[in-house]
Amino acid sequence: MKRLLIAVVAALVSFPLSAADTLAVKAVAQDCSIYKFEPRQLIAPAALIGIGAIGSAIDDFKELDFGLRKPHDGGFVFEDVTQYVPVAGFYALKLSGVQSAHNYRDATVILAASYCITAVATKLVKVVADVERPNGLDNNSFPSGHSAVAFMGAEFLRMEYKDTSPWIGVAGYAVATGTALARIGHNEHWFTDLLAGAGVGILGTRAAYWIYPQVQKILFGKSMDRKREQGCSFMSLPYYNGESAGISLALQF
Length: 253
Prior knowledge:
Blueprint: H1 2-12, H2 19-33, H3 43-55, H4 59-62, H5 79-82, H6 85-95, H7 104-129, H8 145-161, H9 166-185, H10 191-220, H11 224-231, E1 233-240, E2 245-252
Antiparallel strand pairs: 1-2
């Protein structure tokens, strides 16, 4: 009885949680918020798209090439492959056992939604904008499709692994940036096309996370609201082993 009383008092005065308990609570908080729309999430993609659109009317800004632009005679370009590297990186890490925010099925559905949103948005803007490429081949320059896909994958990689390591997302964005700059180097796009493409790709991924609760319900007949309620539930149990006291958490996902 004495030990039980000590344990209860320990719980009431909130002994510090262990590192494992703290990480578990953080993971549950992420599970509850990852699908939530917040206006601040629009700032980065909206800024990129807006600067790209406005900059298209400013020749000195639009034609920035950082000394990369060179004549290109067509054929294979490596960015046809590197645009998919961030997405491939997700599956490589997943196969290696690195913990992500979603399992294979859910992540793949979110990724497919991201790609569809990004592809449709990119195509529509290309048709409306009707901007000629630097090489004069067509009028599909704005925004850059390769940049959109690369940054879509980079944002997806960041969202899935941001609680594991922020450097994974940084690596994805580095690859996406290199892919975008290569489009200038191969004389396929203007600088402003890259900015807008990056914004469209990031926005496409974030939109996919916002709508996924409804998508999951349609595809799998499950309510994400219920899943989130289950994911957020936990109970705390005080303990005392004769020498130290603390709180253990039981989490339900």
